[in-house]
Amino acid sequence: MSRFEVDVYDAVIVGGSFTGLATAAALSGNSDRQMKICVLDPRNYEDLVDQGPNGRATALSASSKAFLDALGIWSHIEDKVQPITNIDITDSSLDVVLRPIFLQFESVLAEGKPAAYMIENHYLHNALSARVSVDPNIDFLAKNRVADMETGDHANTVITDGGERISGKLLIAADGRKSTLRRKAGIKSTSWSYKQFGIVTTIRHEKSHRGRAVQHFLPAGPFAILPLTGDRCSLVWTEELRRGKEIVELDDDGFLTELERRFGHQLGALELAGPRFGIPLEMHLARQFIAPRLALVGDAAHGVHPIAGLGLNIGFRDAAALTEVVIDDFRLGLDPGNFTGLERYQRWRRFDSVFSALVMDGLNRLFSNDLLPVRTVRDIGLGLVNRLPALKKFFVEEAAGYSGQVPKLLRGERL
Ligand SMILES: Cc1cc2nc3c(=O)[nH]c(=O)nc-3n(C[C@H](O)[C@H](O)[C@H](O)COP(=O)(O)OP(=O)(O)OC[C@H]3O[C@@H](n4cnc5c(N)ncnc54)[C@H](O)[C@@H]3O)c2cc1C
Question: Mind listing the pLDDT tens digit for each residue in 123-171?
Fold first, then answer.
């Protein structure tokens, strides 16, 4: 099956979505002694390289932009991204007509560059796929679902549901929140449901958003309006579980009516401009990010509440950190699956991921709450932050993904 005529790849990546593809591109692009890499995904090749719009979009931090730049991806999506220039935060119940803005940020870093950008998922996915499918160091194998895994002294082997066996010195689980590899490796996770439903869709509006993102904290949960190119926005709309499922199944007129109640009229007339997507929201965290010759990245390792649009940005941090650790060892002639390297990766990424998951959890609990004393205290807190420029600057740097131990590729440095 391998076009490299190797029995054992240096790295086998299970999952050909954002994190898996970014990890493959990062490993290949930085291995001077050309690593042999394999990426497996159950979807058809055509669906992997030419995904159509699915209504979903992602907020990318400035550090994720630097990472995509280092992978040679950013120049292919630059004309599709919308910089976020301002962020407004409001906190009111559904029936309040004029929603006061409690907190306003200029989402710009010291050097004048945006702290975050919006991109529709299919553009990002297709650019990553295009990069990986022409890479001479990577076998990109579609229609291959991994069903099982065997561990060995010198390599681990995945077994696809077609019975194919593929071995790698290092296996990388990038197979999402229900990760088969995580389960087969016996890694347990901690998870809980938010009893909330996330509705995602795209709308077109009459007036320009001017790059402004708005987070309305409504009683059922956050309602985020995120600017896209053209006069369009992506919505990430949180509702109580049962109500959310009902709303997503309404006909277009009913859906638009519910949407207008929450969106308001500040951008003029609204129309639906893309498919709807709905998902029950949950938090999950793998108890270990590694096992012998195995590393978990992205949603296979953690899933956080989308309240701050951080999930994939944390996944890109995993990809960049794992690449840094593996490439350092590979250049010294060490086995890419050596356990000491994997322990370094786990020490680096697990604490950071647990911290982010707990902060997102706390914010969601604080803001998806309509008790008057809680609302009063949080509104005073937001008002205070609004009057402290130094604190606002700190939050903008956090949103840009430059806090903690930042991997070199996210700082725009070569390995
Ligand atoms: C409502 C919502 C809004 C969000 N907004 C943002 C945002 O604004 N910014 C942000 O950073 N993040 C956001 N996120 C999080 C982000 O979408 C995820 O973190 C990201 O999609 C995870 O990517 P991944 O590649 O790790 O996993 P996935 O995208 O889940 O991909 C997993 C891949 O593995 C493959 N796979 C699965 N099983 C197997 C198997 N057995 N064998 C082989 N392959 C397999 C699948 O086909 C898939 O391609 C949001 C999430 C939600 C729910």
Answer: 999 999 999 999 999 999 999 999 999 999 999 999 999 999 999 999 9
Whole-prediction pTM? 0.94
**Which residues in the chain show pLDDT less than 50?**
none
> Are 175 and 14 in contact, with CB atoms under 8 Å apart?
yes
- Ligand 1 atom nearest the C-alpha of 146 is 42
364 lines ligand 1 (CB under 6 A): no
Q: Pick the atom of ligand 1 nearest to 303's CA.
A: 19
Neighbours of 277 (CB within 10 A): 16
What spacing in Å lies between the alpha carbon of 26 and ligand 1's midpoint? 18
8 Å CB contact between 154 and 169 = yes
DSSP-derived secondary structure for 105-122:
EE-B-TTS-BSEEEEEHH
Q: Strand 57-61 relative to strand 116-120: parallel, antiparallel, unpaired?
A: antiparallel
Provide φ and ψ at 45, rounded to 5°: -60, -40
Q: What is the pLDDT of residues 354-375, one digit of tens each?
A: 888 888 787 777 777 777 777 7
Amino acid at 145: R
